[in-house]
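**Polypeptide and fold**
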Amino acid sequence: MSLGTLGVIGLGLYLAGLAGIGEWARRSRRDATPADHYLAGRELGVFVLFLTLYATGYSGNSLLGYPGEAYRRGFSWIMSTGFMLAIVVVYHGLAPKLRPIAIAGGFVTPGDWIAHRFGRERAGRALQIAVAVLMVAALANFLFAQLKAMGLLAAQVTEGIVSYEVGVGLLAAVILAYETLGGMRAVAWTDAGQSLLMLLGLSALVAWLLTAAGGLSALTADILVSRPEAARVPEAAECANWASSIALMGLASMVYPQMIQRVYAARSGTTLARSFALMSFMPLLTTTTVTLIGLAAIPRFADLGDVQADRVMPLLLGTWAAADPHFAAAAVLVFLGALAAIMSTADSVLLSLGSLMAEDLLGRDHRAAETTLLGKRIAAAVMIAMAGLALVARNITLWGLIELKMELLIQCVPAFLIAIHTPRLRAGPVLAGLLVGTGIAVGVGLGLGLPRLAGVHTGLIGLVANAAVAWGGSWPRTRAGRVRTTCPTDR
């Protein structure tokens, strides 16, 4: 049986399983409130919370974009393990303090923290809207990237039986269906199974790659023959980009809306701490693995263009299946694991988009069942729009999309990380800083076509200006003690 036929069968079984979990989650819901739909009633335990954090953190960007970037850059891309580790480290500066405040305040969205910390009057509400706009823009970018990755993977591994267009449309419809039915429960439960599938698939692929290549030393020798520059010592600008990427990814990922909402959804502070402890090991296991996949593609596929490089994972699956008919089933397993990673992120993004737009942008009550219904309708509209965009906008790399959304998200950091540790910041200066930082990131990065200056991302430069404006503008009118940023111990 061909890889394409096996791929179609595996895809059908996988999607049927997701639909079943969605129905199970629907029957398990308690009520129609936003807290139940978007946070699963704040009952996620250690195992499920860890797996949903893992599945959300490692997406189509990780499984397709990172191998593609490793193919383009070579060994220097090993720094991706560093910035994924930085995400876990930086989260310890926010999550332990944010969760007890969120539980006491009944938070559902990131904007609830902004309203609590800065107030709901004019400046506070304007800041809440501005943060929500940046987060929605970043999430829409993220969803687009996942849909693009799903279509590429489905078309490649089914050998065209499922086209790119059909793959995007079909998988988007399935995600929308089970997310609408079961909310966070469906997302978290499917994430748990998808995480295990992803780990199993990646392990199988790397084992084959290293065996076929003759080990790491033989792989390095092959790369030196086919593209010597991929193994060279990084230059100064590349090293600066390493440090910049670690800071950008570590800080910006901290304010991912879907990750913040998982902090809210944990059963307890202890549950959250244990889940993050387990997450500490995943960058070494996952990011190093996908980097090896990209490196292994260098001697196998010559002269892939920037956009085509994002296809190295499915191309390797085809090579693996062709090497021996017995490997075809294993290749399909990896395909499903990669697809699971993509879909697990897309469903989380869609869930957060609906809640952000209904509550933070439109100002609906986060306790009302009507808000949940509005969020579902908004999510459906956004999914349709992003699926349509994914069908027409293909000439952009997945890593390019990652950098773009991080440049925006990082401007929200002062309103969260700095504000939770000091009562000094005021809404007006924080809003001004956010606008200045965003202006630098967008104006210099996109308007002038300079995404990096001497290897440093313009979004990071914008953050420095952002924080300076927020802190400096708040200095004359300190209101220490006005805002409570601590809560009793959360066990």
